[in-house]
Amino acid sequence: MSETPYVSALTGQKILLGVCGGIAAYKSADLLRRLRDQGAEVRVVMTQSAQHFIGATTFQALSGFPVRTSLWDEAAEAAMSHIELARWATRILIAPASANSIARLVQGNADDLLSTVCLASDAPITCAPAMNRLMWANAATQANVSVLKQRGVQFVGPAEGEQACGEVGAGRMSEPQDIIDALVSQTLPQMLAGKKILITAGPTFEDIDPVRFIGNRSSGKMGFALAAAARAMGAEVSLIAGPVSLCTPFNVARTNVRSAAQMRTAVLAALAGQDVYIGAAAVADFTPTNKADQKIKKTQGCLDLDLIPTADILSEVAAHALRPKCVVGFAAETEQVEHYARGKLERKNLDLIAANHVAGAGIGFESEDNALTVFSKTERFDIGKDSKYQVAAALLRIIARQLESKA
């Protein structure tokens, strides 16, 4: 039985982090820390304006390397350090990217260190814009962004929300984890190009009366991370989501449902032609036999509920005439994780089962992180604790290899 350790998609990447002027520069310190946590080596170039918002010492302490701030650093430039930096970087990330820095990239300016390095490097460039909402919406800025996109520059954000100036709208720098996820997407191999993947996510709610329900715990974050990562790896993704408050991943077709019965109907309707089915939803195991038409009053005393099992969607998909090539289940367990996961794998005739120990702290329910142990009938793969997006990417790489073995 083989074991495959998890390695971040950013492990070994050499990332040049350009920090431009703007209040969002404070987020770049957290971004740098997260990049290093992912195994990337990071060096920082700050513009003159950036130094008015945050000190170079902070970035030097976090990166472990001196911060470069000037094209006219005689000690560094004696060895043409700007060319060395340009050749060193495997990726250039500008965060925050100001309206001025975006315009300078379009013009091909080379009169400060950051713009010079960008011009002298063939590394892919990613910008995380941060500016006032009207500056972002300005026709000049939008034209500049369009030109850079045509040249292959990637953009992350900006996000919408309240800004430091007191206005509300698009222009906030994306959160560090969102930027990390975007970089991971850009480095992910297109292992699922041309594949169709159907994913369920979130809980189902089984109504007792118009205001009460029963269901399993689930934030839906793992299923949505799988949908986003699968799309980033080239797949055509259909997502069937229970009642969760999560944004639909880019270019993913989403169907919203509430109950287990509705989820079953949606899954079977979308099953034809799918290459992969991933049952990440925490489908309720039981549903009331009868739903009360009116709110049940607490004054009635004890409440007895008659419950019947919900449909086993995962087993039905695995046994269906339109069964996808790879059917993947999830097992959230509090004890004997491997024993119960392997039992579910065999009993439901799955290709893979992704198990996690939800009694552990900091992973699983409502958490931003997860860790999985994935079993096939002959192999075991351990995916260590990481953001749900990166855990999703690791699981999808395993799924892609399963598809290759069935080809």
Domain count:
2
- Can you name the CATH architecture of the largest domain? 3-Layer(aba) Sandwich
Rg result:
24 Å
Portion of residues within helices? 25-40%
Name the CATH homologous superfamily of the largest domain.
CoaB-like
Query: Using DSSP, what is the number of strands?
Result: 19
Poorly predicted tracts of residues: 1-7
Q: What's the shape? A: elongated
Q: DSSP helix count?
A: 14
Return the CATH topology of the largest domain. Answer: Rossmann fold
- Main sheet specs: 8 strands, mixed
What strand line-up does the widest sheet have? 12-11-8-13-16-17-18-19
Name the average pLDDT.
87
What is the CATH domain class of the largest domain?
Alpha Beta
Span of the ends, CA to CA: 22 Å
List keywords for this structure.
alpha/beta; Rossmann fold; 2 domains; five-stranded parallel β-sheet; 14 helices; 19 strands; 34% helix; 24% strand; disordered N terminus
Question: Care to give the gist of this entry?
Answer:
The protein is α/β, with parallel strands linked by helices and 407 residues long. It contains 14 helices and 19 strands.
Structure description:
The protein is elongated. With 407 residues, it is an alpha/beta fold. The protein has two domains: 14-187, Rossmann fold (3-Layer(aba) Sandwich), CATH 3.40.50.1950; 196-406, Rossmann fold (3-Layer(aba) Sandwich), CATH 3.40.50. The protein has helices at 25-37, 56-63, 74-77, 81-88, 99-107, 113-120, 133-137, 139-150, 176-187, 221-232, 260-270, 313-319, 337-347, 388-406, and strands at residues 14-19, 41-46, 91-97, 125-129, 154-155, 159-162, 168-172, 196-201, 206-209, 212-214, 236-241, 253-256, 276-279, 286-288, 307-309, 326-333, 352-357, 369-375, 380-387. The chain has an eight-stranded mixed beta sheet, with helices on both faces. A five-stranded parallel beta sheet has the order 2-1-3-4-5, with helices on both faces. A two-stranded antiparallel sheet has the order 6-7. α1 (25-37) packs parallel to α2 (56-63), α5 (99-107) crosses α8 (139-150) and α10 (221-232) packs across α14. The chain has 14 helices and 19 strands. 44% of the residues are buried.
